Amino acid sequence: MDTLQAFALGEMNRGKRMKVFDWHKAVRLIKKNHIKNASAGLTEDWNWTSGTILEDGEPYIDGCTYLWSTWATPVLVDDDKEVTFECWCWEDECEWNSDTTWPPTARVLMLIGDKK
User: Which of 1, 71, 82, 113 could in theory staple to 13 by disulfide, Cβ–Cβ 3.0 to 4.6 A?
Assistant: First the structure.
């Protein structure tokens, strides 16, 4: 998808609910699937939005990702197995937004796990 197409889709969906990357779901997927290296981004616009979020089993915070959209789907990708997982929540139903990268609660879950 080129920039003009992405812009047009964004304009057509202006004012709709935002999908944002779900960091807690990402941690659960990472733990459940023993993921060591992962990327995140918007599946329909991957080349412009994706970046590393997990490297050698550790949160990678210096990456550059774009993880929210009204029209594209935030995903987690196991870079080693090349498996993609939808990984999002509605912005108005969770605590994250476009600026969120490895929030403290997700980092704690990486260390101690989750009961879910």
Answer: 71
pLDDT averaged over 10-residue windows placed end to end, the chain, 116 residues: 56 76 97 97 94 96 88 97 97 90 94 68
Q: Which domain range does residue 87 map to?
A: 15-112
Indicate whether 51 belongs to any domain.
yes
Torsion over CA: 28, 31, 33, 37 (sign): positive
Distance of CA 31 to the CA centre of its chain: 15
- Evaluate whether residue 3 is within a structural domain: no
Structure token digits, residue 110: 């990486």
Q: Return phi, psi of residue 77, to 5°.
A: -120, 125
Residue with tokens 């590393």: 52
